[in-house]
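Obj: model holo form, ligand = magnesium ion.
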Amino acid sequence: MESFRKKLNKSNIPEHIAIIMDGNGRWAAKHGKARVLGHENGVESVRSVVEGAGEIGVKHLTLYAFSTENWDRPKEEVDALMSLLVHAIEAETESLMKNNVRLSVIGNVDAMPVNVSDKLNGCIEQLNQNTGLNLVLALSYSGQWEIVEAVKHMVNDAIEKKILPENINDKLFKTYLSTTNIPDPELLIRTSGEYRVSNFLLWQIAYSELYFTDKLWPDFRKDDLFEAIFDYQNRERRFGKTSEQLMS
Ligand code: IPE
Ligand code: IPE
Ligand code: MG
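Output (holo structure tokens):
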């Protein structure tokens, strides 16, 4: 039973929502299963959330699927996550196509096994004419990695005299980030009751509204997304101004 969709203000849907999908391991432990089964059950949550976001007109949905730091997990878990990714892409591409979803990836794709990056690139190409939701997967991603990459490119451009140091500002900096073509997320959601950012979108969440829920990722469904958006819609975003200024 979906109860939050009806409550949403259709003229105030965030353009970009980012989600830290956390709690798969704990979900598995709770059900007496191996961690990888937690990850497998998380795929259903991704399906539901992608569907829900598309239905209400969210333009960009960025999902934190694998962080730079996650490479330090036991090899069996990393391997299981990589093969789950390949299987999920194979299984989901058709319904993504049907739902008019585009796919993009942010992160150090070069660090991924070749079979995974090949699958990803194939899926991205297959969906690239779609005009609906832009699904952004953050893979082998971390905010600090992204910022360091941006700085490297910027310094190179400065050495090659393509940019002048005195022209560097926040707007120019953003053009060096992997999210350069999409607006910063208005809303950042993290599941599993952890109150941290874990190196996700550090630059882009400067003014995001943060929403935390105790739900574990494999239990999260589109109505939980709608609930988060409903919560977001009842906040006042002041961007440093006073409440009175916003009223006038
Ligand atoms: C999130 O679930 C998935 C990834 C980080 C890949 P976790 O695997 O972190 O689950 P917990 O936090 O151990 O419960
Ligand atoms: C963050 O979850 C990364 C992803 C959801 C992909 P983690 O489970 O890795 O975060 P920490 O280590 O608990 O902060
Ligand atoms: Mg975790």
